[in-house]
Amino acid sequence: MLYIVIPVFNRRAYTRACLLSLREQTRADFRIIVVDDGSTDGTDVMLTNEFPEVEVVTGDGKLFWTAGVNAGIRRALTHEASRLLTLNNDVLVPPDFVENMLLWADRRPDALLGALELDAATGQPIYGGERVNWRNNTSQYLLAELPETRRHGLHPVTYLPGRGLLIPLRVIQEIGLFDEQRLPHYLADYDYTSVARQHGFPVFCNYDAPLSTYPDESGQQQTRRHRSFRGYYQHLFGIRGGGNLRNFTHFALRNCPPRYMPYYLLNGYARRLVGYFLH
């Protein structure tokens, strides 16, 4: 059985819209677990009254993304889940999303599968995976390389975000859960999928299973939109900071080949130190 795990903290309207889109799926052989990490906007009441089919795991407001996802996965494992799919609450999925994820999961049962991301406002593709060149810390973004005639099926990538990530049970049995101790929020998804790939599990972006996102609503974009010294500090050192130096260091040490490590680290630090002011 597929279990969909959605960590949430407030933003009730996004959660409602996401869950309503999941109700419209052409396949219904899945269950949903929402991890509500201490929301104060009535999310708990909405879930109880409007979505009785959803199982809720509650947190104390200190889980952040990684521990929230892990809490949901642990609950799913008690129900003998055979596949897990992590999903953010600020996404919308088309009716055939689960069907097309499971179709490819049946064909590639050991693979981790991510989703093609569309801008919810325009419907245009905005992220279709990337392949990293560790030597010079650059990425080949597949959307820039693939003509529209090839934007279907599976395409191998270096890592994947957790906004729509299907994980076979065997992966969890071999490498465990996400690293909530060292990567409590950002980079935990990229780290997990990269580590899985190093253990021999294929990692693909599934172009047949798009979902819609709101790119301007991410924490990184909002921090950069209102630049300040405090925002810069949070960018580099805060748990939700997209440029968190400690998180980046841990990610690099676990994933970058040793011979490329010095340049990768120096280049990455420089990008994070100045990138806050450039975007």
Automatic annotation (TrEMBL):
This is Glycosyltransferase 2-like domain-containing protein. It holds the Pfam family Glycos_transf_2. SUPFAM superfamilies: Nucleotide-diphospho-sugar transferases. Keywords: Glycosyltransferase, Transferase. Residues 4-123 form the Glycosyltransferase 2-like domain. Coiled coil: none annotated. Belongs to the glycosyltransferase 2 family. It comes from the Bacteria. InterPro entries: Glyco_trans_2-like (IPR001173), Nucleotide-diphossugar_trans (IPR029044).
